[in-house]
Structure formats: C-alpha cells, structure tokens
C-alpha cells in the first residue's frame, strides 16, 4: 500500500484530497497545524470508511523544523512516502500599501517556503527508490495576479516556478513534480464573501458555477498517480476563468 502525505489536510481542498487518496487505497497522512478536531474527525472517517490507514500529524510546515517533523513522523508511521501534496496555505486581501512586513513574511513562509522545506525533506526518500510524485497547490492568482492580493499572488507564482524547475531536476530519478492551480473554490477561504459576491464570481466563471474541493482533488489524484510522463505541468482547475 502506497503512502500519501497531504499538508493542510484538515479541511477544504486538503480534506477532499485526503478522501480521494484514501478511496484509491493509499495510506494517508493528514497534516494540520491548528485545526486538530477537524483533522481527527477526518482521520476517523477515513479509517472507518475506506480500505486505508490514516494518521494525523501536527506540524507547522511554514518552518524548516515543522517540515522536518512531518516527514520524519510520516516515515515512522508508514515507512515510506510515495506522494507528497503541498496544500497548506493562507489567504489575505489587502491593498498593496497596507501589506506589512509581517503579512508578507507570513504569506511567503506558509504558501511558498513550506513547499521548498517539504520537498527538501521528502525527495531523498523518493530519489533513493527512484520513484515518487509531488503535487503542489498554487492558484489562478499565481498565474494572472489578483488585485489586493499581491503577496498571495507572488507566493503562488513562486510555487509554479519551483514546480517547473524541480520537475526537470528530479525527472532522471523518475519523480514527477506538477502543480494544480485552483480557480474560485468554495472553501473557508471564501468565508468573508457575501452570497452576492459569490454569485457574481460564479457568473464570471464560464461553466457558471464555483469550483468544489472535489474538483481540485480529482486533478491532484490524477497527477499524484500518473505513470511518470506528465511532469512540470501546471493544471488549471478554474471552470474556464483563466485559459
């Protein structure tokens, strides 16, 4: 049985990804930092419902120490890592002139540095066995930029660049590195939006609706289980909002 490690997996897109891999027979590591109750509830559901083994691991992956802890404890739990999904992230809307040094650093650490730290910790295990899949979660705003989200857009654009470069470096070791860029997805990140705002966003989306966490999870599962000839790619899951 293969093992998938998913960061920020207690809720939203991460939780949907955990379900998708559990249903496919993977052992699942559910990483969380603050949402312990939701992580443990999800872990119980996966163990009770699907042919899998699931564990919860608390770690702040925005730090090198937290990333090292997550990978080390994942190896201790299951002995291996086959798929790494870098999903942990935060969002914030602010005028560019209002973004503080602390806002910037927190955004970069959580949304970009975490990807670097975790790939650095996980790749030696994948290289040693000459196989593995890494899927990084970026954003549509990393592709086209989002007004009042300069720091978020910059971090997510960095994830795309990291993905493409690392894919070239790890390809000789039969390790794929790909990226998913969700559009507007109904998760807790949209909690500050009114229903009127959400309707307007849905109307702007060519398919006429907002995305769901499952829409993204389906794409992640494909990239996380591909045979090795799809690498360095950026897959938009955005309903045609950006093409």
Can you characterise this structure?
The protein is an alpha/beta fold. The chain has a single domain, classed as Rossmann fold. The protein has eight helices and seven strands, in the order E-H-E-H-E-H-E-H-E-H-H-E-H-H-E. The chain has helices at 12-23, 36-49, 64-78, 101-129, 140-144, 150-170, 195-204, 213-224; strands at 3-6, 27-32, 54-58, 83-86, 132-137, 175-182, 234-237. A seven-stranded parallel beta sheet has the order 3-2-1-4-5-6-7, sandwiched between helices. Strand 2 (27-32), helix 2 (36-49) and strand 3 (54-58) form a beta-alpha-beta unit. The longest helix has 29 residues, at 101-129. The N and C termini lie far apart (37 Å).
Q: Outline the biggest β-sheet.
A: 7 strands, parallel
The top-level CATH class is: Alpha Beta
Question: Low-confidence spans: pLDDT under 50, at least 5 residues?
Answer: none
For the record, what is the CATH homologous superfamily label? NAD(P)-binding Rossmann-like Domain
N- to C-terminal distance: 37 Å
Provide the residue-averaged pLDDT: 96
Gyration radius, to the nearest Å? 17 Å
Can you tell me the number of structural domains?
1
Shape: globular
Quickly count the helices. 8
What is the helix fraction of residues, given as a range?
A: 40-55%
β-strand percent reads 15-25%
- The CATH architecture classification is 3-Layer(aba) Sandwich
Quick description:
The protein is of the alpha/beta class. It has helices spanning 12-23, 36-49, 64-78, 101-129, 140-144, 150-170, 195-204, 213-224; strands spanning 3-6, 27-32, 54-58, 83-86, 132-137, 175-182, 234-237. The protein has a seven-stranded parallel β-sheet with strand order 3-2-1-4-5-6-7, with helices on both faces.
């Amino acid at each position: 049985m293969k093992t998938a490690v998913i960061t920020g997996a207690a809720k939203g897109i991460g939780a949907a990804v955990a379900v998708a891999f559990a249903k496919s027979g993977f052992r699942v590591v559910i990483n969380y930092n603050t949402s312990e109750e939701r992580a443990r509830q999800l872990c119980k559901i996966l163990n009770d419902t699907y042919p899998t083994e699931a564990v919860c691991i608390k770690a702040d992956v925005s730090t090198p120490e937290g990333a090292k802890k997550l990978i080390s404890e994942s190896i201790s739990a299951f002995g291996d890592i086959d798929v790494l999904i870098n999903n942990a992230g935060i969002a914030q809307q602010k005028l560019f002139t209002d973004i503080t040094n602390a806002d910037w650093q927190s955004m970069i650490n959580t949304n970009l540095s975490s990807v670097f730290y975790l790939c650095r910790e996980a790749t030696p295990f994948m290289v040693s066995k000459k196989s593995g899949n890494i899927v990084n979660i970026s954003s549509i705003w990393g592709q086209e930029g989002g007004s009042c989200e300069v720091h978020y857009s910059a971090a997510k654009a960095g994830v795309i660049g990291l993905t493409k470069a690392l894919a070239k470096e790890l390809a000789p070791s039969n390790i794929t590195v790909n990226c998913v860029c969700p559009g507007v997805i109904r998760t807790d990140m949209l909690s500050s939006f009114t229903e009127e705002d959400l309707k307007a966003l849905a109307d702007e989306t060519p398919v006429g609706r907002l995305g769901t966490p499952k829409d993204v999870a389906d794409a992640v599962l494909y990239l996380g289980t591909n045979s090795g000839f799809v690498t360095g790619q950026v897959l938009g899951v955005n309903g045609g909002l950006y093409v």
